[in-house]
Amino acid sequence: MGNIRVFVRVRPPLPEEVENERYVFSPKHGQDDVWEATEPLIQSAVDGYNVTIFAYGQTGSGKTYTMLGHPGSEGIISRSVRKLFDTKREMESLSRSATTVEMSVELLEVYNEQVRDLLAPNAGLNGREISLKVTSQEVVGNLCVSASTEDEVMKVLALAQSRRCVKATSSNSQSSRSHMLFTIHFAVTTKNGIQRKGKLNVCDLAGSERLDKSGANTVGGALLLETQNINKSLSTLSNVIERLQSGSGNVPFRESKLTFLLQNSLGGNSKTLAIVCCNPLPSHFHESVCSLRFAEKVNKVDLKKAVANFSC
Ligand SMILES: Nc1ncnc2c1ncn2[C@@H]1O[C@H](COP(=O)(O)OP(=O)(O)OP(=O)(O)O)[C@@H](O)[C@H]1O
User: Fold this and answer.
1) Most CB atoms within 10 A, among 156, 179, 183, 194?
2) Dist. CA 312 → ligand 1 center (Å)
3) Residue range of the domain that includes 280
4) Which protein residues are within 6 Å of ligand 1, measured from CB?
5) Is residue 162 one of the residues assigned to a domain?
C-alpha cells in the first residue's frame, strides 16, 4: 500500500481570460512587453511628476533582470534613460535651445539597515557607512551626479552595480543582498523661466527568502545577518502597505530604512508601479502566493492624487 497518487493539471488560459489578465506577464512575455506597459509612466517624469517603479519578489524571481536586464536584453532602467535623453534632445531642438533640460543621477543601497551612497568615493562593502539625512521628501547628503549623455548614466550605473553587495546563495548565484534605489532627475526650464522638476526612482529590492531554503542559517555569519535584515525590511514594507491600505493608525515608515526612503513613493505625491516577480516552479508555490498577496495589497493602496512639480 502506498500513498494516494495525485496529478495536478493546469489548463491553458482561454482567449477571453487572457484578455482579462493582460497585466500579468507570463513567461512567454519578454522585456519589450514589460517596457511597452511601463513606458507611459516615464513620460510622467518628463511632465514633472515623481515616478517610482519597484520590483518585489522572492530571491531569484527576476527583479534585477526586469530592472537592469542583461546585455542584449535591456531592462527598464536603460530603456528609461534612453527615453529621457531622447526627450531632452527633442525638447531642446524643437525650442532651438530656448528650453533646457538638466539631468542628474543618484544611486543608493540599503544594506543591513544602513543607507550607502553607491557613488561616493569610499562606497562599497569595505567603505564607511555614509550617514545620510533622510527627510520625508528626499534624501539629503548623498552625491547627485549631473549627466549629459546616456553613456555617462550607464557608466555610473555600472560602477554602482559593481559596488553593490551581490553574493551567491543556494537560491541564486548572483543574489542582490541589498536594496538598490536609482534616481534620475529631469528638470525642464522654459525660455520664460518656468521650471518643472520630475524624477524617476527605480528600486530593485533584495529578495525575500526562507532561511532554510537559502542555506543562510547553516552558513551563518554575514549571509545570515543579511538575510534577516532583508526579510525584516520587506516585512516592514508589507506592514506599511497594509496600514496604507486599511487607512488605520500610524504608518510605520520609520521602522526600516527602506520604507523611510520609499515614504514619498508609497504615501505621498508620486505615481507608483510595483512589479511583482514570481518563480515559475511548483516548489516555490508558497513564496509566489505570498508575493501575489503583497501585490493584491499594493493594488488596493490609494495614493494622493499626484501633482506635477512646477515653479516660476
Ligand atoms: N524573464 C526572464 N527571462 C529569462 N531569464 C530570467 C528572467 N527573469 C530572471 N531570469 C534569470 O533568472 C535568474 C535570477 O534572476 P534575478 O537575478 O533577476 O533574480 P532576483 O529576483 O533579482 O534575485 P535576488 O533577489 O536574489 O537578487 C538570473 O539568471 C536571470 O538572468
Assistant:
1) 179
2) 44
3) 28-234+271-296+306-311
4) 57, 59-65, 70, 172, 174-176, 206-207, 277
5) yes
Known binding-site residue numbers for ATP: 57-64
Residue 255 falls inside a structural domain = no
Considering the domain boundaries, does residue 34 fall inside one? yes
Closest residue by Cα to atom 31, ligand 1, is 65
Closest CA to 73 of 62, 60, 84, 59: 62
* Number of separate domains in the chain: 1
- CATH number of the domain within which 106 lies: 3.40.850.10
Note the pLDDT tens digit of each residue in 193-234: 999 999 999 999 998 877 666 666 655 677 888 889 999 999
SS3 content of the chain, % helix, strand, coil (to 5): 40, 20, 40
In a domain, 65, yes or no: yes
Cα 108 from Cα 116, distance rounded (Å): 6
Say what the pTM is. 0.90
Choose which residue among 172, 204, 214 to substitute to test ligand 1 binding: the one with the highest number of ligand atoms within 8 A of its C-beta.
Answer: 172
Report which protein residue has its CA nearest ligand 1's atom 11: 62
